[in-house]
Amino acid sequence: MVCYDEFTKLVVDVLRHYYDLAHLQPHPLCELVLPSSAPDDLRAQGIRECVLTAIEAIKPETTIPFGDPEWFPYLILRREYIEGCTRQEVCQELSVSERTFYRYHKDAIESVCTILWDRYQQQTSTTHTGDVQPTAVGLHDEAMRVMARSWGQRVDVALTIADVQGTVEPLLTARGNALQSSVPGVPLYASTVETILRQIIVNCILLLNARVINGTISVIAQDRKDRMELAFGADHVSHPLQDEDSKTVRTLAEALLGHVVVQPTEITVSLPFVARRSLLVLDDDQDILPLLQRYLGAEYAVLQAVDVSQLIELLESEVPDVILLDILMPHVDGWQVLQRLRNRRETRHIPIVVCSILGDQNADLAMALGASAVLPKPFSQEDLLAAIRPLSASVGNPAKASRPMC
Fold first, then answer.
1. Which of 277, 304, 327, 369 is a plausible cystine mate for 289, CB 3.0–4.6 Å?
2. d(CA 169, CA 173)
3. Last residue of a domain, one of 226, 256, 272
4. Residue 34 sits in which domain range?
């Protein structure tokens, strides 16, 4: 029976390798907290879901204001391990020193380990009722949160495949298998989320590895003009692949706006080349620009106008996918600006999100005057993305539909 200190070390190791499925698949913590009935090929996802559930369990009640120190333990674990932020970025977001960060980090680890330790104790004394099983819904939510931080990264596909090969090499070698990759002669770049792309590649290779002994698994990357195609295959498999086997891959690919085709000996993943979108904000607050750039990452190019004249000037040279409009500004009536934009032929088609601390009555006014959505202040990263993503996706600006230059 493992002691609590050793158990804590295992939990920390899982957190540090949260997106390394090859590392998690045989992880000792799986034996301690997962049910014996858990499928072998879902062990990595199962242990991730257990850890994520424990992190979510320390999330404060919604009655506690976001940003209150009670949120710090939860946010520190989510930002660092699930969303991939650096510790410096987390400190900056929470406005805390590194010393304070480590104090809350220690408390958070202790809380999560206690929850998982209780689960382990139950595993050894019960018949495993109510075990947490891997779910596509939970994985999709994870993928969307990662996308919120990392969308639009310029990823070298060949280097990513080579890096993944090094990660899964021990599992391939154990079954006498080799990985053979084929990529275009010219560099192939994708505007995507590297972390999620890596997990797609890892999962496809592991699915085939479990069906091949002393064989060769192939990965072929191709540029299909408007999309990137990754084909994973093997000549001989012990049992054919089925759609049911690709749930994890399909969920990850759909998060990247892609799709998956499964054949008995092959999995093909198709991912679009996504152009970077743009957001133009009218706000006199100089701090809003770095905040939006941090929240939107590489997914959106952010431009700021501090007054109406600058807004019109920018609109003459740039057609943004979304306009974020502050209502309360000195010397500027946001309602008049909204009406003016809606009455101009050049701007009436652009979605406008009214961003304000005003109440529900003003939200109704905003919609009546032609706003596409209302974003109350203060807002979180999730609130912002939930407001603008559906609008920018529906614009369909032909000038921005082409594949980005790399």
1. 304
2. 6
3. 272
4. 4-132
